[in-house]
């Protein structure tokens, strides 16, 4: 399957809200509620921040929220902080125990 | 503390073979499905393979099907990835990750670098 489509970069000032879109097709995001999001600091392993479309693992700030509509998922970071800088990836289950990741979005805090 | 530690990466010539390992600790390994995810230098994440809790079922991305084999030894709390017929495009950091029923990758190792080059 082709990678899910994300904007290459998004930026915002501290305290602002930013939203990252993640566009798939009917056989992945459009078909399942198994959409997850990951934050990756350069040189580090990815970290799960959202699972099951809009659930946060323990310890993830509630500034991170997500949603899904049709074949598009979105991640919103409210009250942007300098520590939020990094790369963000969406991921969708695609059936038959296969997954597809997004192309990745670099978040810059101005 | 839940921990995954990958090992086995290195420099290998095209056509060669390599076996990666992922040692798990801090949780009931035999109650978690597992996956391998890779990231080429400067590129995004790519799902590679999945194995069920018992190890009886495995699945692969088309890009590695027929060349890579995922397996696990629940008695040793270790996940493996046997990589054969390696290609230059397999060059990447390889991560192992746990896969709970949410079908997300919730715990990741630190990764091991595989470089395929002549």
Average pLDDT reading of chain A: 96
Overall geometry of chain A comes to globular
By helix and strand content of chain A, what is the structural category? mainly beta
Apparent shape of chain B: globular
Q: C-alpha Rg of chain A, in Å?
A: 13 Å
As residue ranges, the low-confidence spans of chain A are none
Question: What does this molecule look like?
Answer:
The complex is a heterodimer of chains A (110) and B (118). Chain A is mainly beta and 110 residues long. Chain A has strands at 9-12, 18-23, 35-40, 47-50, 64-69, 72-77, 86-93, 99-101, 105-109. In chain A, the strands form two sheets. In chain A, strands 1, 3, 4, 7, 8 and 9 form a six-stranded mixed beta sheet that branches. In chain A, strands 2-6-5 form a three-stranded antiparallel beta sheet, with no helix packed on it. In chain A, strand 5 and strand 6 form a beta hairpin. Chain A starts with 8 loop residues before the first strand and ends with a strand. Chain B has 118 residues and is mainly beta. Chain B is 0% helix and 51% strand. Chain B has strands at residues 3-7, 10-12, 18-25, 33-39, 45-51, 58-60, 68-73, 78-83, 92-99, 107-108, 112-116. In chain B, the strands form two sheets. In chain B, strands 2, 4, 5, 6, 9, 10 and 11 form a seven-stranded mixed beta sheet that branches. In chain B, strands 1-3-8-7 form a four-stranded antiparallel beta sheet, with no helix packed on it. Classes of the chains: A mainly beta (110), B mainly beta (118). The interface between A and B is medium-sized, with 26 and 21 residues.
Note the topology.
The complex is a heterodimer of chains A (110) and B (118).
Chain A: E1 9-12, E2 18-23, E3 35-40, E4 47-50, E5 64-69, E6 72-77, E7 86-93, E8 99-101, E9 105-109
Chain B: E1 3-7, E2 10-12, E3 18-25, E4 33-39, E5 45-51, E6 58-60, E7 68-73, E8 78-83, E9 92-99, E10 107-108, E11 112-116
Parallel strand pairs in B: 2-11
Antiparallel strand pairs in B: 1-3, 3-8, 4-5, 4-9, 5-6, 7-8, 9-10, 9-11
